[in-house]
């Protein structure tokens, strides 16, 4: 896409009320803060059918990334344009709540960039979670609707502001002002990402120079002389610094000395600046999307952000298999990392589910119906990953299809189907089951429904159902063994 419409969203950051160890997003207070052990990246992948949705990746060192959920989408937007770009991960100051805020845009649906910029959605898409694993249904917030002539709302970011006790949520809107129509950065304040103040102009460059991508990070102990640093794609990649989020900012320079620009300076043309601090040390990465050459993100790093001359390029990084487009990085505590990897980690094995009383048959999907069969072909129709339950990650499971990414076994009218996760709480509950001792043989397994706990998964005439179990036949039909795939 043209540089003037550069890829949406740089990652968000947020900050805490105190000055110890910070993640990219809003931080915990010192009393509650645990050491960070890993990193989570939320991103989208491009303009393919499912590319404009939420994907996740994990890193142990902040440089080498592994795609989670086997490279499949994790959250799907069911509101607005039904597509999202530029996801920003936000942690509450207390560390007990998380949000994803994203651009409401789906170019793959046939929208042109011109229409998207001038007649697009003025809303952002939001999800909420208390554990980074179980997410709410998405909702829309019309942050730019009150801006005269607003054509869009792109590339959201958020940072906690201790001066006001809430988050500053900022984004780019294309609108006329003083006779010039271009992208400027606007902001609102919000505590819950549902209600918000009236939009205020935040950043405007001179003349006709537009600005879409900007992102702020808070730095512990004001290393480099400032508490906050801001990177913006405005023709160059401009680095600014401040001691208050909504106060005045000082321009430190740009990256032209590294042969890096956002188009005005030529060289390696990049966009989507994305900050992340390395765990346990005073060093920061600024990730830049090399969109002009299609090479994806590259990091430059610094141990002192007070001067742009302190950045150096890196080659010791790996972004994994999936293409990473504008997103954000969240530093993870050990507990958070364990939950995330338990739900979406690539180590979840492939399994088959064997019938107890017809032992040559296995649960399989066929034309999206679900039954038990012998000699399943193709074999992948009978292969699943038993991931932490979509509605209950503690002690429950969901059956993720191997050959239909993003699809799960769910009950519907007490019949079973293989269906694509639509992101709703109803789907999550219908697709979640608790493993219990086998009803016919305690050394085997039965699966009790999460939302109908008096019912169990069972086969009846070789078709899978969700039924109450009242007799020996039912107990046999509702007993299975999880075997290696």
From TrEMBL:
InterPro entries, per the entry: AbfB_ABD, AbfB_ABD_sf, GH43_arabinanases, Glyco_hydro_beta-prop_sf
The organism's place on the tree of life at top rank: Bacteria
Keywords, ordered alphabetically: Carbohydrate metabolism, Glycosidase, Hydrolase, Polysaccharide degradation, Signal, Xylan degradation
GO annotation, biological process: L-arabinose metabolic process; xylan catabolic process
Signal peptide (residue range): 1-30
Gene Ontology terms for molecular function: alpha-L-arabinofuranosidase activity
Residues annotated as domain Alpha-L-arabinofuranosidase B arabinose-binding: 352-482
Any Pfam family hit: AbfB
Name of the protein: 1,4-beta-xylanase
Organism: Nonomuraea diastatica
